[in-house]
Amino acid sequence: MTDLYHHPLCPHSRFIRLILGEMGIEPDLVEERVFDRRRDFLIMNPAGTTPVLVEEPVGAVPGPGPISEYLDETRGPALGDRRLMPDDAAGRVEVRRLLDWWNGKFFAEVSSHLITEKVYKRFMTADQGGGAPDMDAVRVARANIRYHMRYIGFLIRGRNWLAGDRLTYADLAAAAHLSAIDFLGDVPWAEDETAKSWYVRVKSRPSFRALLADRVPGIVPSPVYADLDF
Question: Domains in the chain, start-ordered, CATH in brackets?
Answer without folding.
Answer: 2-82 (3.40.30.10), 89-205 (1.20.1050.10)
